[in-house]
Design goal:
Number of helices: 9
Structural class: mainly alpha
Oligomer: single chain
Shape: globular
Distance between the termini: 18 Å
Length: 220
């Protein structure tokens, strides 16, 4: 849904209505944050939903446990993706890259601590992801609000609460477009759970999936 900002911020920046970029980003924050609450039941009831779909009990229970610990990461998306679009529309990709590098280093450190030193297993890996994604949010927010974007960030504004209905429609349309593309890979993972020795099959496909999109993301 944050991809709607690519159109709006690009148009505003081209028209030299720089202050509107910050307002559009705040509207996106509001819309996406509210939508995060609508999706919470999928995290809270991941285990029974997966069992209902016929997934093995061990896969469903572990997935449900990890899903609960990934709720903080889920809410970070509502802020992180609009911030990315906000900066990229101003050709500040280098800022996103440097902040991502810091988040990567934090993720390596926290993963080592939580998984290997303290032995928290997959829960530790989930918490490490939570921390690193919020580092991304904190880094980009600090840059935008501490003088890095003097023309496009003029502070919080009540204008962000106007036109939310139209903004929601545009965001939803953009979200559906991307979901139809990405659900293909999620369906593959779900179908893998029906194979014999599903745990190994899901693990292998997940590694491939993450590696594939890391490569694509770096190219983009």
């Amino acid at each position: 849904m944050a991809s709607a900002l690519e159109t709006l911020c690009g148009q505003a920046y081209g028209a030299k209505r720089y202050h509107m970029l910050g307002i559009y980003m705040q509207r996106s924050w509001i819309v996406l944050f509210c939508c995060c609450f609508l999706l919470l039941p999928l995290y809270a009831f991941a285990t029974p939903v997966l069992k209902l779909l016929g997934q093995p009990d061990d896969v469903a229970e572990l997935s449900g446990q990890v899903a609960l610990w990934l709720i903080p990461l889920h809410f970070s998306f509502a802020f992180q993706f609009p911030l990315q679009r906000f900066l990229q529309c101003q050709l500040k990709n280098h800022v996103v890259a440097w902040v991502a590098l810091v988040a990567l280093l934090v993720n390596v450190l926290t993963s080592w601590l939580f998984v290997y030193v303290w032995g928290f297993g997959v829960v530790g890996a989930a918490v490490a992801l939570d921390v690193s994604w919020w580092v991304l949010v904190a880094g980009m927010t600090w840059y935008a609000m501490r003088g890095g974007c003097p023309l496009t960030w003029t502070g919080f504004s009540v204008q962000a609460f106007s036109g939310l209905g139209e903004f929601l429609k545009l965001s939803a349309a953009a979200g559906v477009m991307l979901c139809l593309e990405n659900w293909y890979y999620r369906v593959l993972i779900l179908m893998t759970g029906y194979l014999e020795n599903a745990t190994v099959a899901v693990d292998a496909l997940s590694v491939w999936y993450v590696a594939k999109f890391k490569i694509i993301g770096s190219i983009d």
